[in-house]
Write a structure and sequence with these properties.
Layout lengths: L5 E4 L1 H11 L3 E4 L6 H12 L11 E4 L3 H13 L4 E5 L1 H16 L5 E6 L14 H4 L7 E4 L3 H18 L3 E6 L8 E4 L3 H6 L3 H9 L16 H10 L1 H22 L24 H14 L2
Parallel strand pairs: 2-3, 2-4, 4-5, 5-7, 6-7
Antiparallel strand pairs: 1-8
Helix pairs in contact: 1-2, 1-6, 3-4, 6-10
Length: 295
């Protein structure tokens, strides 16, 4: 217990802690309430803080969220470990590149402070309209309930995406979690390093665009070929939940904190079940425990 380090931080800070340590390229563009993730990463790099590979990540602010996602697509295509942060309309501007990233089976984690999309009016507060709009892109989606989970699942998703070759959308509730300050147990740098397998990083780099190792990419295909290539990706998605749970088990052995792709809380003979994700899940968890204890 003596070697454990705790720090009061919000959800954005918790995610930036893991994301900066596990990536090489970070492309950003500010949008409420996700902006601090990019700002904190920029501060880390400007101070010379190194990632777990011993390098200082490069942080680029682009001209828009579309540019940020395009830069990430390019960095991934070049074999880099890359990430970005966004919310709301910013995430919608990333959708075209998200389709390409998923279609090319490029490993990355986009971190989202989930927020309402401007409809009849703009709202900077929370719901899941933005992340739900990306369900068809091919990104796997993982929700964190609180700042500790945000830090932990950011790391678990990073290891999983490299192993599975399926990109991840890691999201948490804007303002409710992104700006919620809690005492968080920091993940040691050596644990973050152990959450990524070197052979997975090497495999990712081996697929980089390289004139000495040419590959075919960005083609146009007729339906007979297009659907076959799309179907070929199913195996990667079928394997992803099991890979995610294996990285959860690895994380538990290293830190003692237990996660699973899906958790069940409550009576084993329950007649009514609530399915939930993100910050509401913690409230429901406590409510279920209280109600069961009083019969």
């Amino acid at each position: 217990m003596a070697d454990k380090q705790f720090q009061s931080m919000d959800g954005n800070s918790a995610v930036a802690y893991s994301a900066h340590a596990m990536n090489e390229v970070i492309a950003i563009y500010p949008i409420t309430p996700s902006s601090p993730m990019g700002e904190i990463s920029d501060v880390y790099s400007s101070q010379g803080q190194k990632n777990v590979m011993g390098e200082v990540p490069v942080v680029y602010e682009m001209q828009s969220e579309g540019g940020a996602s395009g830069a990430i697509h390019g960095a991934l295509s070049a074999g880099s470990l890359a990430t970005t942060f966004t919310a709301s309309q910013g995430l919608l501007l990333m959708i075209p590149n998200m389709f390409k990233i998923a279609g090319e089976l490029l490993p990355t984690v986009f971190h989202i402070a989930a927020r309402s999309i401007a409809i009849q009016a703009l709202s900077i507060f929370g719901d899941h309209l933005d992340v739900m709009a990306t369900r068809s892109t091919g990104f796997s989606m993982v929700a964190s309930n609180n700042p500790q989970e945000a830090m932990d699942l950011a790391a678990i998703c990073q290891g999983t995406t490299l192993k599975a070759s399926v990109p991840f959308l890691h999201f948490f509730d804007g303002f409710r979690t992104s700006h919620e300050i809690k005492k968080v147990e920091l993940i040691p740098q050596d644990v973050l390093k152990q959450m990524m397998d070197q052979e997975d990083i090497t495999r990712h780099r081996s697929r980089a665009l390289n004139p000495n190792n040419p590959i075919m990419k960005g083609t146009a295909e007729n339906p007979d070929i297009f659907f076959q290539n799309k179907e070929r990706q199913n195996k990667f998605y079928e394997d992803t939940p099991e890979i995610f749970d294996k990285f959860c088990e690895r994380f538990e052995k290293l830190t003692g904190r237990k996660y699973r792709a899906f958790d069940y809380v409550g009576d084993k003979d329950a007649e009514t079940v609530v399915i939930a994700m993100a910050s509401g899940a913690d409230v429901i968890d406590e409510s279920v425990e209280y109600l069961n204890n009083i019969g």
